[in-house]
Amino acid sequence: MMNETNLQDVLEEYAISEPTGNNLATLQQMIEKYPQFAAELQDFAAARAVIKYAPEVELNALEEARYQEIGLNNLRAVLSAKAVQPPTSLHSLTEAAKTKGLNRSKFAAALGLSVSLVQYLEKRRLEFASIPQAVIVKVAEVLETGEELVANYLKLPPNPATNASFKASGRPEEMQSKSFDEAVREDQTLTAEEKRKLLEL
Amino acid sequence: MNARDADSTRIKTLTRRTRQGELYVRRPDAQLQIEKILTLEKAQILVMLEGRKRRDEADYLLDETIVYLLREAKTENDNEMIETLYLELNRRIFKLLLKFRDGFKNNHADFEDFGQKVEMAILKKVFDIDSNSADFAQVQFGLFVISEAKGIRKQHLVRVNWEEAMFDGGREGEEEDNRLENISSANELSAESRLIIQEGLRNLSPEQQTIAAMLLDGFQIESKNAKEPTISKHLGVSSRTVRNWIKEMRRTLTGYQGEAR
User: Fold this and answer.
1) B178-221, pLDDT tens digit by residue?
2) Contacts of B49 (CB under 8 A, 6+ apart)
3) Residues of chain B positioned with their CB less than 8 A from the CB of A24
4) How far apart (Å, rounded) are the C-alpha atoms in residues B86 and B70?
5) pLDDT higher than 90, residue B72
6) Phi-psi region of B74 (alpha: psi -120 to 50; beta: other; left: phi over 0)
7) What residues in A contact B209, CB-CB < 8 Å?
8) Contacts of A117 (CB under 8 A, 6+ apart)
9) Disulfide-capable partner of B143 in A15, A65, A171, B129 (CB 3.0 to 4.6 Å)?
10) How far apart are CA A38 and CA A44, in angstroms?
């Protein structure tokens, strides 16, 4: 489950790699690289052709009024939601991941880490100075937030393990603070190759 | 957005990176327009948003510029600016989505529901000013909208309304003035065929426009390579069916004559 990719990232990767328009050779390469999104990639490319060539659609007065109403309702909903909850700091990495539709294992996969390492990050049981910058950058990217917010979260004192709510087969152990490298080496779920890559970060 | 200090006139750089580690970059026209707009007063920007300007008009605000200004207005909690900018962007989003209405088989309620969800997804990203999730929107807004739409609609965006697309596939042996014969007999469009299609696109039905757009963009009708994306594969029909549609399109276009013919 390492390095899980989501659809939007894949579509964005294709669009950014071919900024001027569809390139069917690149599209085919992308489909081979991400076969799980083959249909979506092809549809995205077809849609790109349609927005490029299909004539502009003019809205009639009725449509204009109706879509404006929808837009205003959406705008008010988003603005009022934001007013209640201004995003100034992170309270939990895994909770933030949940809002992006990622459970703990999907979040770990998106980061290229094990669930156990994510738990260390969540509980702030890794010495901040030992955490590779690449990991902080990746967390920020997956959570679509600033690197500074992630770093500030990880710098805070360790979280007590009392609210651990994930399902574990055994009794949860009290996590001691350790270095990132140490946590990687001790991880029982990572393969040797995965450990090597993480230790090189 | 009134008294402009040095900070507010400096364009904010994008921070999102490609998988290769390169920072996202705005198109030069968008970059230039944002730099210029940042030197204007709010009232001047509002004037630019008045009326319905065409894309080729000099002071037409690019979608990417509107996204940038929306985020600035959100930072400053300028609700008047937010609403004005957003209503314009909203109109453009729906105009773009309407190009895919055919896939909803004239079910307006389904289409509106879809449009509402796409808009909501866009709004959340654009207003998330602490994240770089809207960087793509500042690079290629149209494709950003499509990628959000794809995240919401699991079925194809690009499809044809079968009932409307029941073209008459007959007259196969007919000898016609056939400037578009290459379309149906070969996988590449001649320059002349391209021109004919582009000129006459507005005269085609929505179903025909979809196929024409894919042809113009270089999609093949079919391919011996099973992995290659093709029109027939995407629309889930045989290449013979696509060719029949193209013949019908040809009849429409030759009937149209074109401005220069």
Assistant:
1) 445 445 444 567 777 778 888 888 888 877 888 889 988 888 88
2) B61, B84, B85, B88
3) 218-220, 228-229
4) 7
5) yes
6) alpha
7) 50, 53-55
8) A108, A183, A184, A187, A198
9) A15
10) 10
Q: Give B71 or B162, the one with higher predicted confidence.
A: B71
Q: Which residues from chain B sit within 8 angstroms of residue A46, using beta carbons?
A: 156-158, 210, 214, 219, 234
Nearest neighbour of B150 by CB, restricted to A43, A51, A56: A43
Instruction: Please answer yes or no on whether B91 and A70 come within 8 Å at the CB atom.
Output: no
Residue B48, judged by CB atoms within 10 A of its CB (0-12, 13-18, 19+), counts as: middle
By the CB < 8 Å criterion, does B112 face chain A? yes
CB contact under 8 A, A46 and B157: yes
Residue in B closest to A64 by C-alpha: B91
Residue A47 identity: A
For B180, residues 6+ apart whose C-beta sits below 8 A from its C-beta are: B193, B196, B197, B246, B249, B250, B253, B254
Distance CA B40, CA B205 (A): 43
**How big is chain A, counted in residues?**
201
Give the separation between CA A87 and CA A16, rounded to whole angstroms.
28
Tokens of A121: 């990050």
> Contact, B136 vs A12, CB < 8 A?
yes
A10 φ, ψ (degrees, to nearest 5): -65, -45
Q: Establish whether this prediction's ipTM goes over 0.90.
A: no
Dist. CA A122–CA A108, nearest whole Å: 11
**Angle, to 10 degrees, between the axis of helix A104-111 and the axis of helix A115-122?**
100
Mean per-residue pLDDT of chain B: 82
A5-52 per-position pLDDT tens digit: 689 889 999 999 999 999 999 999 999 999 999 999 999 999 999 999
Contact B112, B78 (CB under 8 A): no
